[in-house]
Amino acid sequence: MYNFELTREFARNLDKEDRLAKFKERFYINEGEIYMDGNSCGLCSKDAEETLFKALKAWKELGIGIWTKGGYFLYQDTLGALMAPLLNAEPEEVTCGNSTTVNVHQGILTFYHPTPERNKIVMDDISFPSDKYAVISDIRAAGYNPDECLKEVKSRDGEFIYEDDIIEAMTDDVCIVLLPSVLYRSAQLVDMERITKEAHKRGIYVGFDLCHSIGVVPHDFKKIDPDFALWCDYKYLSGGPGAIAGLYINKKHFNMKPGLAGWQGNRKDTQFNLYQSFEHAKYAGGWQIGTQPILSMAPLEGSLNMINEAGLENIRAKSLNITAYLMYLIDEKLAKYGFGVGNPREDAVRGGHIALTHDDALRINEAFKANKIIPDFRYPNVIRLAPAPLYNSYEDVYEMVERIIKIMENKEYENYENQNREGLTNNI
């Protein structure tokens, strides 16, 4: 399917043909730096800066009037409508609020109604652990024992989720299945539609964590039909570090009571009546909790406008092509130095990043940063590389591989200690 060549000129020709190449100039990129960490914290764009400054200007000039005169009181609905096309969902099914982990709590506490006969939640054992921390506390809050009610499906190899094993775990005592769409470490794209269909056959609710797919992998929620989903907006969506998170609630559940209630989830026509009884709004906005942090939300507007302008299908096409090109260069140029590819190679089951593996990955990762390559290390042997379609070029990928060859030829990684896994600096 892919027909690549090893020269820099070939990379430059790919860039000339790239319909998304023009977007790179709209991002702030440090000179000489190759930024490959868009799957952890996306770069700042001029578009995001503009909508942030617009909100800041409204606050400066209007004070409390920012909510009404500035038009920001229902900003979450505006952003939800901009995000809905990324999921092929209805605008009223999508909202912005809280952090990802708070939205895990919101989803679980909404759909988890355990009984002595049916009280288990199915998860895998290798996805990002914050979701599990939340689920454990939610099971405990419901008065049940997490050791008994969290049904953890072990990965066969510690790298991938096997859908057959998840389906086998869908026994009569299961209430909810919660899985990632893309595994944060190995970039595996889970078969969400199959999981959802099998769960619904058994009367089980399904939720997905989209943190590593939203904005780089199109999802068709009208076809997949999950019950809820959640995600962060600071990776491929470039909403800013710690940006507001996203939440999807399937419209067939709008009459359910939110697990976590707050005044922003109240009906809008009675919200300022300040009744002591909660009347939740019958759309995704009804799952809002507290007052929105507008300055945390504002950059996302610019980013979403740009992503919709570029077209998510175009973004996915480039993502698949540029990651395939990177794998080709790893195979042809880096394998002899002990590097491997730890992610699926097939397009249909691959997310937006490459898991570059090496037995000495931690020290090599430090050498990358010293050579102005910005990667993302995951213990014990994975360096995640995410060529973001809107601001990484094919020549960026080629140049990065050339710098890696230099690092390995000169053994520059030997200048760094092979420290243990403790500490933030080893992981970013």
What does it look like?
The chain has 428 residues and is an alpha/beta fold. Helix content is 36%, strand content 11%. The protein has helices at residues 8-17, 46-62, 75-87, 100-111, 130-141, 146-149, 163-168, 192-201, 221-224, 294-310, 312-334, 361-370, 394-409, and strands at 34-35, 94-96, 120-124, 150-153, 174-180, 205-209, 228-231, 246-249, 340-341, 354-357, 373-374, 376-378, 382-385. The strands form three sheets. Strands 2-8-7-6-5-3-4 form a seven-stranded mixed sheet, with helices on both faces. The longest helix is centred in the last third of the chain and has 23 residues, at 312-334. The chain starts with 7 loop residues before the first helix and ends in a 19-residue tail after the last helix. Its EC number is 3.7.1.3. This is Kynureninase.
- Uncertain runs: none
- Indicate the radius of gyration in whole angstroms: 22 Å
Mean pLDDT equals 96
- Identify the CATH class of the largest domain: Alpha Beta
What is the CATH H-level superfamily of the largest domain?
Type I PLP-dependent aspartate aminotransferase-like (Major domain)
Straight-line distance between termini: 34 Å
What is the helical fraction, as a range of percent? 25-40%
The count of helical stretches stands at 13
Q: Globular, elongated, flat, extended or rod-shaped: what is the shape?
A: globular
Which secondary-structure class do the elements indicate?
alpha/beta
CATH architecture of the largest domain: 3-Layer(aba) Sandwich
Q: What's the helix-strand series?
A: HEHHEHEHHEHEHEHEEHHEEHEEEH
The amount of beta strand, in percent, is 5-15%
Secondary structure: number of strands: 13
Main sheet: which strands, in order across? 2-8-7-6-5-3-4
Number of domains: 2
CATH topology of the largest domain: Aspartate Aminotransferase, domain 2
Largest sheet: 7 strands, mixed
